[in-house]
């Protein structure tokens, strides 16, 4: 794991690198990002409808194959996503896009 990847582990996607509390909050809902450049980050999906999670996400990152591009994450078919606070589902890396 390189230095950039170590900084990301256990953090919420979008939290500033110098945020004193970059981790999850107990009243929020998260998807765990698995694989790819954002592996180990949590994506805050509080208030998202199930179909929004099912559609997957394209997350801007400087760590993708194309700096300034997007890393693509999507759920595995048939893997349940529950509701409520905490980590409710996983989104898996499926590639990068400019």
Reconstruct the topology from this structure.
Elements: H1 3-8, E1 29-34, E2 42-44, H2 50-54, E3 57-60, E4 70-74, E5 86-97
Parallel strand pairs: 1-5
Antiparallel strand pairs: 1-2, 3-4, 4-5
Features:
mainly beta, 5 strands, 98 residues, globular, five-stranded mixed beta sheet
Largest sheet: 5 strands, mixed
What is the strand tally? 5
Spans with pLDDT under 50 lasting ≥5 residues? 1-8
| Backbone CA Rg | 13 Å
Please estimate the helix content.
Answer: 10-25%
pLDDT averaged residue by residue:
84
Oligomer: single chain
Q: Categorize the overall geometry.
A: globular
Secondary structure tally, helices: 2
Secondary structure class reads mainly beta
SSE run: HEEHEEE
Strand order of the biggest β-sheet: 2-1-5-4-3
Strand fraction: 25-35%
N-to-C span = 24 Å
